[in-house]
Amino acid sequence: MKKIGIITSGGDCAGLNAVVKGVGLTAASHGMSTYVIPNGYAGIYNLVEFDSLTELSPARLDIVNVSLAGSEAGHSRVKISRIKDPHKYDRIKEGLKKHGIDGLVISGGDDTGSVIVDLAQNGINCIHAPKTMDLDLNSYSVGGDSTINRIGTFVQDLKTTGRTHNRIIVVEVFGRYAGHTAFRGGVGGGADAVLIPEIPVNFDVLYSHMRDVYWMRILGSDVRAGTYSIVVAEGMKNSNGEELYDENSGVDSFGHKKLAGAGRYVVQELTKRMKADPRIIKYMKQSGMYVEGLYEAPEIRTVQPGHLVRAGGSSAYDVNYGMEAGMAAVELLKAGYSGYSVVDVKGTHIRFQKTEELIKQRYVDLDQIRFYENMNMCFGRPITEVTPVFEEVHGQVDRIY
Ligand code: F6P
Q1: Model pTM score
Q2: Which CATH topology does 151-309 take?
Q3: Would you call 344 a catalytic residue per the annotation?
Q4: 71, 220, 291, 356: which could form a disulfide with 8 (CB 3.0–4.6 Å)?
Q5: How far apart are CA 321 and CA 141, in angstroms?
Q6: Do the beta carbons of residue 94 and residue 46 sit within 8 Å?
Q7: Digits of tens for pLDDT over the chain (401 positions)?
Q8: Annotated catalytic residue within 110, 134, 136, 192
Q9: H or E segment and range at residue 354
């Protein structure tokens, strides 16, 4: 293993530049060189046509800023198995041979991982460094912590404008069909309700919670001010289990529906219930907000931060995980492994798993949610009492740091 190619693929996020740097620095420490294969799998498919590749020399690596989100290696959503060319794997091998690349470190999520499984089966050496802001892989994935922090900050920030206008704010966030970042970001920002794809939403439950909490705040405030925050995961479903995305959004080149529109649906459902609720006019009058014909009910607004949840900067945790995942991927390649994903690094132990296992979808633990429901956070379903199971732990505990 002399020359390593680095690819980053799928939706970008924070921590990827740390993976790039971890790969480059570790390879250099073993006397190996690293090259950027630009623009994800589009780049590897077209590698044979490139005259040269950029080497991550010590000077070039020095200007890779680990704390910036996005990736110095670029991304595309091209999935190799969807390319029609029947000779695609031969073309990729020819490209690798042309540039003398012996192995690949590929950072991405489940779709990227499924291509790693394909490539490894086709005799191409590759190791996976887990990345996805959706956090839906079996292991931690770079990008998740930064996104959670950003969602938390947006929720918190939107409370200032929400409270000033006495508005109910619905924040729709990325995450596809897993609610991890909506849940943890919502908790981080002190949201009142979080709607996740794992729990089909009962809008009557959500509406009653919203009405009670929102009016408790306004009627209890000395300046009659209050807001209510709802975080909605883009992949949420209604009580019939139907997805709520906008039919006209189209599909990406991995073939996935582009999800958008869940926030608007939530606004419609809550507005409908508010209009039919005779208590609202009473509360509007009681709070001194009521103006006939102009202001008869509070406003419910939706905000879609979109790509902002994965843009900007990386959290320190993602830089740490990214550097270690990049380093571990090089060590695994050097040791002759292929078709595996890095899990994490504990001391000098590099833990890894077969990529096909690691990319199996992981969803929010609905039992854990029940504790939050009992702490008055609404998830669009009735609260059930939790009976905790106590477990005394001996010896070293599994921990983040
Ligand atoms: O998978 C990561 C992700 O951010 C999803 O949460 C989101 O649905 C999607 O990517 C958006 O992708 P794109 O950047 O292609 O619009």
Answers
A1: 0.95
A2: Rossmann fold (3.40.50)
A3: no
A4: 71
A5: 8
A6: no
A7: 999 999 999 999 999 999 999 999 999 999 999 999 999 999 999 999 999 999 999 999 999 999 999 999 999 999 888 899 999 999 999 999 999 999 999 999 999 999 999 999 999 999 999 999 999 999 999 999 999 999 999 999 999 999 999 999 999 999 999 999 999 999 999 999 999 999 999 999 999 999 999 999 999 999 999 999 999 999 998 888 887 766 667 777 667 777 778 999 999 999 999 999 999 999 999 999 999 999 999 999 999 999 999 999 999 999 999 999 999 999 999 999 999 999 999 999 999 999 999 999 999 999 999 999 999 999 999 999 999 999 999 988 877 77
A8: 134
A9: strand 349-354
Nearest to 13 by CA among 78, 73, 69: 69
- Indicate if 151-309 has the same CATH topology as 3-142+314-358: yes
Residue nearest to atom 2 of ligand 1 (CA): 11
CA–CA distances in Å: residue 364 to residues 112, 174, 221, 385: 22, 15, 35, 19
| Ligand 1 pocket member 176 (CB < 6 A) | yes
Give yes or no for residue 132 CB within 6 A of ligand 1: yes
Distance of CA 144 to CAs 20, 130, 148, Å? 17, 11, 6
Residues 137, 109: Cα–Cα separation, whole Å:
7
What is the rounded distance in angstroms from the CA atom of residue 169 to the CA atom of residue 377? 15
**C-alpha 187 – ligand 1 centre gap (Å):** 22
Q: How many residues does this entry show for the chain?
A: 401
Cβ-Cβ contacts under 8 Å for 78 (sequence gap 6 or more): 40, 41, 42, 45, 253
Kindly give the distance from the C-alpha atom of residue 366 to the centroid of ligand 1, in angstroms, as a whole number. 24
Could you tell me the residue ranges of all domains in the chain? Answer: 3-142+314-358, 151-309
Architecture of 3-142+314-358 per CATH? 3-Layer(aba) Sandwich (3.40)
